[in-house]
C-alpha cells in the first residue's frame, strides 16, 4: 500500500478554481452560451427547412467540384439518400448542424494557433503537451467543468467536441508550414516579401494539403463525439444510438450508427479531395 504521508490531491485546488470561475464569470459564460445556441438553432432550422432533394443536389455539386468524378459523386449522394430512406433525415440535420458549428470553431481556433506554433518554437514547446492532454484526457473529465459553466444541452456538447477535435488541426497546420521548402522561403526573402506576404502568398498555399488533412481529422473526431454529446442533451443521431443502448434495440442503434458512418464517409471523401492538388485529383 502506498504511504499516506506521500500522497496529495489537486481536487480541492481545481474545484476552487472552477467555483471562482463560475462565480465571477458566470454571466459572461451564460451570454456566450445563449449566443452560440442561437447560431446552432438558426443553422439547424435552415438545414431542416431546406427540402431534402435540394440538400442532396447541393451535396452532389460539392462532391463533384471536389472529386471531378461522376461515380464517387453518385455514390456519396446515394449514401445520404439512404439515411433519409430509413427515417433519420431530421436527426442527420441536427447532427450536421452541431458538427458544422464545432468544426468551424475548431478551424477558427486551430489554424491561427498552428501558424503561431510554426513561427514560435517556445509556443510549440508549451502547446504540444497541452494538445496531448486534450486528445488523451477522457472526454467525461472536461465535461464536468463545461457542464458547470454552460449547463446541459447543445452548447457544452460543442465545447467538449472542440476540445477533443481541435488538436489535429493545430498539429497539421504547424507541420505543413514547417515543411515548406527552405529554398522557396529563401527565394521569397530575397525578393523582399513582407512576412504577411510570405504567410498568405507562399506558406499557407503550400501547406494547404496538410491543413485540409487537419480539417478532415478534426471533422472525423467531431463526429466521433456525437454519442457522448447526446448524453448531455445534444440531439441528433447520437441520441438514437443512446436510445438503442438504453432499450437494447440493436436495429435502431445500428441504423443510427451506420448513418453516422455515412456522414463521416461523405465528409471524409470531400475534404480529402479538396486537400489533394489539382494534378492528383485529375489523375
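Sequence proposed for the structure above (283 residues):
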Amino acid at each position: 500500500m502506498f504511504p499516506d504521508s506521500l500522497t496529495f490531491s489537486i481536487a480541492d485546488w481545481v474545484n476552487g478554481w472552477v467555483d471562482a470561475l463560475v462565480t465571477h464569470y458566470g454571466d459572461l459564460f451564460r451570454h456566450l452560451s445563449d449566443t452560440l445556441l442561437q447560431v446552432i438553432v438558426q443553422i439547424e432550422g435552415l438545414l431542416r427547412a431546406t427540402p431534402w432533394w435540394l440538400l442532396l443536389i447541393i451535396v452532389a455539386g460539392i462532391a463533384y467540384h471536389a472529386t471531378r468524378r461522376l461515380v464517387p459523386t453518385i455514390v456519396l449522394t446515394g449514401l445520404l439518400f439512404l439515411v433519409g430512406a430509413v427515417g433519420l433525415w431530421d436527426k442527420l440535420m441536427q447532427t450536421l448542424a452541431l458538427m458544422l458549428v464545432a468544426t468551424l470553431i475548431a478551424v477558427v481556433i486551430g489554424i491561427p494557433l498552428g501558424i503561431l506554433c510554426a513561427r514560435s518554437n517556445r509556443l510549440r514547446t508549451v502547446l504540444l503537451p497541452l494538445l496531448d492532454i486534450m486528445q488523451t484526457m477522457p472526454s467525461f473529465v472536461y465535461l464536468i467543468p463545461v457542464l458547470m459553466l454552460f449547463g446541459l444541452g447543445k452548447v457544452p456538447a460543442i465545447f467538449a467536441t472542440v476540445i477533443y477535435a481541435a488538436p489535429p488541426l493545430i498539429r497539421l497546420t504547424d507541420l505543413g508550414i514547417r515543411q515548406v521548402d527552405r529554398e522557396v522561403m529563401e527565394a521569397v526573402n530575397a525578393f523582399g516579401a513582407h512576412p504577411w506576404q510570405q504567410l498568405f502568398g507562399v506558406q499557407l498555399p503550400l501547406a494547404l494539403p496538410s491543413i485540409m488533412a487537419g480539417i478532415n481529422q478534426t471533422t472525423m473526431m467531431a463526429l466521433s463525439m456525437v454519442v457522448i454529446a447526446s448524453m448531455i442533451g445534444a440531439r441528433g443521431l447520437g441520441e438514437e444510438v443512446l436510445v438503442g443502448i438504453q432499450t437494447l434495440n440493436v436495429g435502431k442503434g445500428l441504423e443510427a450508427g451506420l448513418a453516422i458512418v455515412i456522414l463521416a464517409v461523405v465528409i471524409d471523401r470531400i475534404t480529402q479531395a479538396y486537400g489533394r492538388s489539382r494534378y492528383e485529383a485529375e489523375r
